[in-house]
């Protein structure tokens, strides 16, 4: 209470309030005439301060009840009358939308309340997204991709081993599968897993086995289709080849070209450091780099084109290699001694890089590409024979799989019969199978000849058709000629899904963006989910 027994001037709160108790409470003004709403309103009757928390009026009611019974009875009578007509009172008291927005308190970005609100919202979004929405979205997309993969018939794969940037340096392994659907090449990055084990062939094989089992891909079925032999031919389990992607000709050419462009700037920097003078390139060094660039520049376009996963099939590799070895690396009289040596070394490396079996497969894949056919085959007759053998194997395999599926379906729901009926049926079936086997032995040779004749006829028709333009899509051509050449189409469908054989650099690049230095603490399972979304979630 103020000096002399007089109460200070008490003003109502600045905000509109509903409770009648505020008729007996208020706030003082400071020297500047501003209302001091500090959460401790003063009683207009006795001048005492009453603590309120976030606008709660319970303490004010208690103060009136204990100290001012007359005022307390007045408020109770007002509340009783207002409760009798609560609906009409609420209609009158309810603010408009404009008034509701005007009442909202504004918090500065650095205020404590704003930070609390931001933290609560961020925690909710993070908790909901990571624990609920992301796993739900991942499982839904994984099921959709699994159904799409199940529609494929032949598969090829690329893998990548890489280390995350930032302070963690965690090792990861990625697996991408390639296949054909409706004669369109499809690619799906299935897994990007934390891989702390040693990068040995056994550990990588175990990862592949677990991954194939997780996605419901029959490993034995893939082994029959010789997919594993393709992986071994690509030396996927060998660590050295995985890291060779950094030193492929395309990147080396770009590095040397940029050095030549920035030669003066680089030399200027080296000149300022006496300890680095020994690194200063000499004229002879520059001459060597320029000669190397002259050889690598024509190769750059081919290496960049073969780095594509979505468009380039392995069928393009044989024509490109043939052009590089026969034309680009052909030693000319005007070449310098260094250029001649480099060309010989590169040519020798390319010629010895692929085994005879790998070259045989490359010839076959190039043959079933309607852009090339037998143009780049070293032995066209041997390639045609190999193609005929593959077509025959695929035909018998398709028939065998159909019979096995029919047998499995029939044995799944046997029809109950009596013992006499079973014996009678067994006797009849024995006679039927004996007769059929005898006929089959007599006609097996002729049926095989008939199948080979059909395949050879298809090969002749295929060769007689003019090659298509190089810019034409070969898979689209096969989609239009499948009915005319069914046996060759089966061979094309098996082999044209194999991509150009490079490490899946696109996965490394995309995963590097996901696992940036700012996200170095991201858990491996979240890296796998985000990478899976990047490659498989359609726009």
TrEMBL record:
It is found in: Nucleus. Pfam families: Dimer_Tnp_hAT, zf-BED. Its main location: nucleus. Keywords: DNA-binding, Metal-binding, Nucleus, Transcription, Transcription regulation, Zinc, Zinc-finger. One of its GO terms (molecular function) is zinc ion binding. Residues 16-75 form the BED-type domain. PANTHER family: ZINC FINGER BED DOMAIN-CONTAINING PROTEIN 1-LIKE, ZINC FINGER BED DOMAIN-CONTAINING PROTEIN 4. This is Zinc finger BED domain-containing protein 1-like. It comes from Triplophysa rosa.
């Amino acid at each position: 209470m103020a000096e002399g027994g007089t109460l200070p001037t008490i003003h109502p709160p600045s905000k509109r309030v509903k409770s009648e108790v505020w008729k007996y409470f208020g706030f003082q003004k400071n020297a500047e005439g501003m209302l001091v709403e500090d959460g401790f309103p003063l009683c207009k009757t006795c001048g005492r301060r009453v603590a309120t928390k976030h606008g709660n009026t319970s303490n004010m009611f208690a103060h009136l009840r204990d100290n001012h019974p007359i005022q307390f009875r007045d408020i109770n009578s007002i509340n009783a009358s207002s409760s009798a007509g609560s609906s009409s009172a609420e209609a009158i008291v309810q603010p408009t939308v404009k008034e509701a927005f005007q009442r909202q308190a504004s918090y500065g970005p650095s205020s404590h309340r704003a930070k609390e609100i931001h933290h609560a919202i961020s925690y909710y979004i993070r908790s909901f997204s990571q624990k609920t929405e992301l796993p739900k979205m991942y499982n839904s997309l994984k099921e959709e991709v699994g159904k799409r993969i199940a529609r494929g018939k032949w598969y090829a794969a690329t893998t990548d081993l890489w280390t995350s940037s930032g302070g963690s340096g965690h090792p990861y392994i990625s697996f991408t599968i390639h296949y054909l659907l409706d004669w369109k090449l499809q690619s799906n990055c299935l897994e990007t897993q934390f891989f702390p084990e040693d990068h040995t062939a056994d550990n990588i094989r175990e990862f592949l086995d677990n991954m194939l089992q997780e996605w419901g891909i029959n490993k034995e079925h893939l082994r029959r289709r010789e997919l594993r032999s393709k992986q071994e031919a690509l030396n996927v389990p060998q660590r050295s080849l995985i890291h060779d992607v950094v030193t492929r000709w395309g990147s080396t050419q770009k590095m040397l070209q940029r050095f030549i462009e920035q030669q003066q700037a680089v030399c200027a920097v080296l000149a300022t450091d006496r300890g680095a003078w020994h690194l200063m390139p000499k004229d002879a060094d520059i001459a060597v780099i320029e000669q190397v660039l002259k050889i690598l520049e024509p190769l750059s376009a081919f290496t960049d084109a073969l780095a594509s996963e979505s468009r380039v099939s392995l069928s393009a590799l044989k024509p490109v290699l043939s052009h590089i070895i026969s034309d680009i690396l052909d030693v000319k009289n005007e070449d310098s001694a260094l250029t001649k040596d480099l060309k010989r070394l590169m040519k020798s490396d390319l010629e010895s890089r692929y085994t005879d079996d790998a070259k045989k497969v490359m010839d076959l894949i190039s043959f079933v590409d309607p852009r090339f056919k037998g143009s780049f085959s070293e032995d066209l007759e041997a390639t045609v024979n190999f193609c005929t053998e593959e077509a025959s194997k695929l035909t018998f395999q398709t028939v065998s799989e159909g019979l096995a599926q029919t047998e499995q379906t029939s044995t799944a729901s046997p029809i109950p019969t009596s013992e006499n009926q079973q014996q009678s049926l067994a006797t009849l079936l024995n006679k039927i199978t004996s007769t059929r086997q005898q006929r089959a032995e007599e006609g097996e040779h002729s049926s095989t000849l008939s199948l080979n004749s059909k395949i050879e006829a298809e090969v002749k028709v295929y060769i007689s058709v003019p090659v298509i333009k190089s810019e034409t899509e070969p898979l689209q051509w096969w989609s239009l000629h499948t009915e005319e050449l069914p046996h060759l189409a089966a061979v094309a469908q098996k082999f044209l899904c194999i991509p150009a054989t490079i490490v899946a650099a696109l996965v490394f690049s995309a995963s590097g963006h996901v696992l940036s230095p700012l996200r170095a603490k991201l858990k491996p399972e979240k890296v796998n989910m985000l990478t899976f979304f990047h490659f498989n979630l359609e726009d």
